[in-house]
# Entry
Amino acid sequence: MSRSSFDNIRKYFKTGCFSGVDRLLSFIDFRIPYLKNSKKIFHYYQITVENKQAAKMDIQTEEYHFNNSYALEMKHFLEINLKNNLSGAYTHGSLGTDEIINYSDFDGLVILNNYTFRSASEIFKTAVALRKSERIMRKMDPLQHHGWFIITEKELEDYPSDYFPPLLYKHVKCLTGKNNFSIKRNLTEVESKKHFSGFCKHLIQNIQKNTATTNYYDIKSMLSGFMLLPAIYLQLKHPEGVFKKDSFDLLRKELSETDYKVMDDISQIRNDWNYTPPNRYRMLLKVDNALLNHYFHKKWSGVVETSLAKTIDTLKPEMLRLVNTLLSKAENEL
# Structure
């Protein structure tokens, strides 16, 4: 079973859509593409995984023991609705370390077990439940720009280290399911560089988009992607991964003060973040209608205040320069 098959499985659980027709159908009801494509995902998962020589690694995680109301609500939802489908569900990032600030979003990982893929109907049921659980994420952060990180039980035998680096498990907390499990990983240098190049290409497009400083949804997506840049780059040197919080000082040591300064400027924006969603945007999130989201999700998130928009526009050339600097280092020095 190829990596692209697993990536398609992740794409399915995100929206259910693989085509323009699927997206149009989602405007009628978000569940229709999930139902339409569930048999395709069932057949993807039946393909035998190639048995590769890979290093085994034991993963140990702590149970979630903090009191964040959104994490506890998510734990309850998963245990009621997806108990039979998850090998485990985990919080990571600031939610996993309980270092939450105004900018924080809901970072979560689920490992879907083999039982989930026993039939197309089970796949469909799981996908719809996961999609509904993301409403809890948006309650914590109305600008949440991603859903669950998703790994399947089969992938533990050929672990996607570039997707969710193994080192991060030291900082996650288990909401439900297994605290301990094993993985086998075998990531090549070519795959790592391809992942980094793709990430940078997408980030450059986000920075260059005019809308990035006209609405809050786009601006937060762009800023969050930029602040992931150090961790993604350093993973080329450390295949097991680098914790995002540690990546900033590690990258600072590799760059000149001039090259790194823009990362400090963006981090300050993160620290000073103070966003209040407009009432109509709150209503839109509660409705969770694909058609309304398509036309109004970004626009209704709010117009970025002038001073912040000007600051980001001023920083964009330096942001692009840093991305290109790291692309060059990855190509020529690693």
Q: What stands out?
A: Residues 189-332 form one domain.
